[in-house]
Amino acid sequence: MQVAGRNVFLPLRQTVLGARRQYPVARQSKSAGTQTNVEQVPPSAAKCHGKMRGWQLHSYGDIDELQLSDKLKIPSIRSSNECLVRIRTTTVNPIDVAMLRGYGATVLNKMRCLPSDGIEFPLILGREFCGELVHKGMGVSESLPLGTRVWGVVPLQASAGAHAEYVAVPSYCISQAPDQLDDCEAASVLYAGLTAWSGLYVTGGLGGPCGATTSSGGGAHKRVLVLGGSGGVGTLAVQILKSQKVQVLATCSARNVEMVRNLGADFVVDYNDCEAMEELCKYAPYDIVLDCAGQGAQKAEELKYDYRQYITFSSPMLANIDQQGLVFGAIKNVGDLVQTNFKSFVQRGGLVKWGFFSPAPHGIEFLKKLVESRKLIPQIDCSFDFAELPKAFERLKGGHMQGKAVVKL
Ligand SMILES: NC(=O)c1ccc[n+]([C@@H]2O[C@H](COP(=O)([O-])OP(=O)(O)OC[C@H]3O[C@@H](n4cnc5c(N)ncnc54)[C@H](OP(=O)(O)O)[C@@H]3O)[C@@H](O)[C@H]2O)c1
């Protein structure tokens, strides 16, 4: 349990630390009334002081709550290690659909620097992007000159995400985009990729301590079953694992079996075909069963095969706190995890863990190396113009995608 507990709270701790790193100079700047920590604005970024287009949320609800405005204030850099990026492409992920409904608001609002009225709106969703670095703080490395084509992610607690023309992010969230990818492909890798990487290497310890703390990967000759190998996270998980010589089995719907096989999975099963699903017992025990299909921890109880770790990206952690408040929600989280792990350990001899997206620079480096060596090829299901962004949300809600939904600015 100690191991499971440590992994569960690590990403949350990382995100909190990220938030602390992001704001200290902002407070200094406010009191001083100036921003001396920001590198001189180049001519190309002069319009950063103007207005931008972006999709805003003024209350939680459904897709019709998204409102396009062309009068939004361009975000300003508030600390010496922040960067302003002019976005060319972004994506829609399941987390955007969930946040539209208010998912995670209790915890995320605690982590946001909310105004004195305590209201989080307006919010801008969007967790990943490809674009051009147009402005940066003095503390940002010289290896990222202005004008660099970058790819990046937006921390979950940021109120202003990537569904806009500009986004401000801490420099550890971006790096030079790989030349091998066009703008649509480059926007579609990092959020799902860092989720898959963190689940496998941080939560799952697939590559040992080095795999979790460096960009070295690892896990050769282990055996991993990916539930939902055809989605945003699953397509990247399959390719990450194959690149590290891990034996990969995967599930998805019938129409996507061929695609997942082409990504390199050794054995792919249609999850609606009960007979074929029985075949998965032959390959057990699995070192890791990776749930990229929204099945949750309870699914671990239904599996007929043994595993050492069942890692799900659908944790009830934020939802429990939304429903029961910080204290009772946290107690319920611990209770749920203890109960699930007790059953899992007794029945299957394995642990159940919750995996999370983690904006770790060495995770970004790991994914970049795979792209550069052509071992990771992003899968794009569909793309939309910026004005049609709600259609990308609709497409995602429809399910059965083959990769990501991209939005072009
Ligand atoms: N905790 C975190 O930080 C975090 C971060 C990212 C994502 N997530 C979660 O991770 C999950 C995957 O995200 P994603 O972006 O990859 O979503 P996605 O693109 O919608 O992919 C969903 C996948 O699930 C498969 N699937 C659906 N029903 C299934 C079933 N009954 N059995 C097996 N597979 C099934 C789909 O297969 P077919 O399309 O072939 O039917 C598809 O491969 C989502 O639940 C998301 O919320 C969590």
Explain what this protein looks like in three dimensions.
The chain is α/β, with parallel strands linked by helices and 409 residues long. The chain folds into two domains: 50-189 and 378-408, Medium-chain alcohol dehydrogenases, catalytic domain (Quinone Oxidoreductase, Chain A, domain 1, Alpha-Beta Complex), CATH 3.90.180; 192-354, NAD(P)-binding Rossmann-like Domain (Rossmann fold), CATH 3.40.50.720. It is 37% helix and 22% strand. The protein contains 14 helices and 15 strands. The chain has helices spanning 2-22, 24-32, 94-100, 105-111, 183-187, 190-203, 208-213, 232-243, 257-262, 274-278, 298-302, 317-348, 361-372, 389-398; strands at 51-57, 66-73, 82-92, 128-136, 149-153, 166-170, 174-176, 223-227, 247-252, 267-270, 286-291, 307-312, 351-354, 380-385, 404-408. Strands 3, 4, 5, 6, 7, 14 and 15 form a seven-stranded mixed β-sheet that branches. Helix 6 (190-203) crosses helix 8 (232-243). The longest helix has 32 residues, at 317-348. The chain is globular. The protein starts with a helix and ends with a strand. The relative contact order is 0.15. NADP nicotinamide-adenine-dinucleotide phosphate is lined by residues 93-95, 192, 195, 227-228, 230-234, 251-253, 256, 271, 292-294, 313-315, 356-357, 399-401. NADP nicotinamide-adenine-dinucleotide phosphate (NAP) binds at residues 93-95, 192, 195, 227-228, 230-234, 251-253, 256, 271, 292-294, 313-315, 356-357, 399-401.
